[in-house]
Amino acid sequence: MRYSHKLSDAVHILAYIAICHDGDLSSTAIAASVESNPALVRRLMGALRRAGLLATQQGSATPKLARQPAAISLFDIYQAVEGTGNLLHVDDKTNPHCIVGGNIQDTLRAAYAEVQTAAEAQMKTITLARLIGDILTRERAKRGPAAD
Amino acid sequence: MRYSHKLSDAVHILAYIAICHDGDLSSTAIAASVESNPALVRRLMGALRRAGLLATQQGSATPKLARQPAAISLFDIYQAVEGTGNLLHVDDKTNPHCIVGGNIQDTLRAAYAEVQTAAEAQMKTITLARLIGDILTRERAKRGPAAD
DNA sequence: CATTCATGTAACGATAAAAGTAACATCAAA
DNA sequence: TTTGATGTTACTTTTATCGTTACATGAATG
C-alpha cells in the first residue's frame, strides 16, 4: 500500500495551530500548508479531538490545543491517528499443521510487541513542544544563518 | 498499501530451515508452511543470502544458515529484507513557503530516526535462537500440556 | 549425457490500505 | 437569512505488496 503519513500530517496540524494561532486556522488554510485537502485535515482533526488533544468547534475555524504542547507526546498523536496500528505485522496466514507455521504467529507477536513497546517509549519522550521548538529553530537558521 | 509480511516470512523461512533441517527444504515445501508461493520464498531467500545470513546453492534444495541462530538477530533479518525501509514515514510533500511546512520534514526525520533507533536496538536483542526456542516451547505446550 | 527438478530472477497482474475527491448535514457569524 | 465553516460519509484514485507466470541456469541421477 501507500505509506501512511497520518502521524506526520497530524503533527503538522498541531504545530500549525500552535505556531500560527493568530492566522487563518481553517481546514483549507491548514491543508495548503500540508499540501493536502481540507477533508483529510478535518478527518485528522476529528481523531485528535476524540483523543483529547484538540478542541474544535463545528462551524468555526478556531481550533485550539486541548493541552499544553509540553504535555502532548508524539505517542499521544500516534495513538490518536493510528489507533492500535502496529509498526510490524505478523503474517496471519501460515500452515497450522506445521511446527513452524503453527507456532510462529504467537512467537512473532510476542517479539514484535517488545519492539513496539521500545518504539512507543521513545515516542513518549518526544513532546510537541520540542517539535515546535525545532521547527522554529530551523526557521531562524534559514533566515539568518550568520546573525544568531 | 497492504502491510508487509516480509520480515515475518523471512523469520519463518530461517526457523523452518533450522528446525526441519532433515526434511524437505525446497522452496515449494517452505512455501507450503508459509502458505505462500515458491517464488516469494526464493525472493526472500535471495535477500537473506545477499545479507550473509543464509547459504544456498542454485539447483539444489539444501539451504543452510550461514551463522549460528544465536548470532542472527531480528534486526539482521529486518535489514536483509526491508533494506533501509523505515517504520515511520515523513510526508515529503508540504508547502515550503510556510514556516511549518518548510521545516517539519527535517524536524520529523530527526524525531523518527530516534524512534527507529530505539526499535532497532530492541530488535538486536532478539535472536533467531530465541525465536526458534519459543516456537519449540509452544509446540511442546500444545502437544503435552499436562506432561511438562 | 539427457532427463528431471531445483534455484535465481524478472515481468506482469491482482490486492488492499491510504490519500484524494465530492457531497451534504450541521453549526457559527455577520 | 446568507455565507462559510466544520463533521462525516461514500466513492475513486493511487501505489506498495503479494501472487503468478515464465524461463535461464545449475545439480543430480539413470
TrEMBL record, chains A, B:
Family annotation (InterPro entries): Tscrpt_reg_Rrf2, WH-like_DNA-bd_sf, WH_DNA-bd_sf
GO molecular function terms attached to this record: DNA-binding transcription factor activity
A GO-annotated cellular component: cytosol
High-level lineage: Bacteria, Bacillati, Bacillota, Bacilli, Lactobacillales
Protein name according to UniProt: Rrf2 family transcriptional regulator
PROSITE patterns per the UniProt record, alphabetical: HTH_RRF2_2
Pfam family, one: Rrf2
